[in-house]
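Dig into what follows:

_____
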Amino acid sequence: MQMNRRFLASLAIGLAAATSMALPFAAHAADEAPDAMIKRLSTETLGAIKADPSLRNGDIGKVMALVDSKIMPNVDFRRMTAAAVGPQWRQATPEQQQRLQVEFKTLLVRTYSGALSQVSDQDVNVKPMRASAEDKEVVVRTEVTGRGDPIQLDYRLEKTPGDGAGWKIYNLNVLGVWLVETYRSQFATEINSKGIDGLIAALASRNNANQAARKG
């Protein structure tokens, strides 16, 4: 039961970071409040997933396409990966940093894609947010409701300047555990043992194993 709840909460990571299949995120990015953004994206994407059986069945190609086109533009994934890797990120070459981002994204997608089949009558309730208009970083707290007990899911977002101005997610709290910190402890063990290349190899091996398990 705990694993099912964790998978369901994991699903909301994608729900709250993704746009709907029809409405472009850019139309809202610059002036939309972060809590309103989370609520809109969650509601729109839940509807889209409920309407697409192949997404609910965990079609990896479809999930990857959703992530690349809808989720990634709304996440500061470089910051998320750098925080998960920790201090060694600054010593990594640009090529290593790119490999880490690719393998980390693949790991997250394959780990959480199975949660899509759990979508039925879920909804996302956004709690009142304490923040001022000048804040550049905020926490949006939500609950995923549906079957069973409500599931805590919180988001850390930063306001980005420039052409892509708007709020971007860079960390998530699932059932009281921040995702980046969880992976940082795992990655630190691998880096201390085998360095950055060792971490990249370990992530690639894990992704290959996950792919083989799904095919099996």
In short: The chain has one domain: 2-215. Residues 1-5, 16-27 have pLDDT under 50 and may be disordered.
